[in-house]
Design brief:
The protein is α/β, with parallel strands linked by helices. It is built from eleven helices and eight strands.
Length: 272
């Protein structure tokens, strides 16, 4: 992979960014530039078969189907193992779950999980989280499909904390169809002992972890982040949690992205 070769050539500490559902790697472009200015090498790998552009993803949603949590985690693990230096990992939404899975495998020097999807053992299921996921979970056949969000669904699940004008701009700029399988895996994680949506929270090689929650997030409300923190905080590594006031699930891409990026960067700078 070209990004890995570049990171190894620079010998600067790498940071791997992991996107979640309904977004592409390009959602991290501004973050990558900011982290590189701070002296890191940024990698923004896609999930397997991610299209290059939002237009391409919306034109061919079928290529994004059939992606499971385990498959995507293994894909990122392969990329990380090719790096000469153990990276910091930053993930958003399902990318936040993946970041914690990877950290639990001992692959991270430090981890930031932003509005991270829940894993096995995280019990709260607030109504707004269920409503956000219902466009997928409402039809069992969606497990094997890639499902786009309507604007109204995106407005509720991602862009509820910004203006109508900004919400529409975010929808046009970033929203793509998402694989249904991971949502079904997360929804049934506490019923399935063999679920892929699980995190080794006890690994002593997990490293420092910061969990970030947007105060107004409908998709991953504070109750989920707090419960994730409770599961993680017994790890011997540093475990911290921060709630950012007035922010929704789009906090990594909306007009206030820099505050969240700076919070993440400050944490990583302490350890990497």
């Amino acid at each position: 992979m070209q990004q890995v070769a570049r990171a190894n050539a620079t010998a600067l500490p790498p940071v791997v960014f992991v996107h979640g559902l309904w977004l592409l790697p390009s959602s991290w472009d501004r973050w990558a530039a900011m982290f590189e200015e701070a002296g890191y090498t940024a990698l923004t790998p896609g999930w397997p078969d991610d299209p290059e552009t939002v237009a391409e993803a919306n034109a061919h949603p079928e290529v994004m189907a059939h992606k499971t949590v385990g498959q995507v985690a293994d894909h990122f693990a392969e990329i990380i193992r090719a790096l000469d230096i153990k990276p910091a990992i930053v993930g958003h939404s399902f990318g936040g779950l993946l970041a914690q899975i990877l950290a639990g495998r001992g692959l991270a020097s430090a981890t930031v999980a932003i509005d991270a999807a829940p894993f096995r053992g995280v019990l709260p299921l607030p109504f707004s989280a269920l409503k956000s996921a219902w466009p997928v979970l409402g039809n069992p056949a969606n497990r094997n499909r890639a499902i786009p969000l309507t604007y109204d669904q995106f407005r509720f699940g991602f862009a509820n904390a910004v203006s109508e004008t900004e919400a529409m701009e975010l929808y046009k700029t970033f929203a793509v169809p998402a694989a249904g399988a991971p949502l079904f895996q997360a929804a049934t994680a506490n019923l399935d002992p063999w679920t892929e949506a699980k995190v080794d929270t006890e690994n002593s090689d997990r490293g420092p972890l910061l969990l970030i929650s947007g105060e107004k997030d409908n998709t991953v409300p504070w109750a989920i982040t707090k419960a994730s923190y409770e599961r993680q905080r017994d790890n011997p590594g540093v475990t911290e949690v921060v709630q950012i006031p007035g922010r929704g699930h789009a906090l990594t891409v909306d007009s206030g992205w820099r505050e969240v990026a700076q919070t993440s960067l400050d944490f990583i700078k302490r350890y990497v």
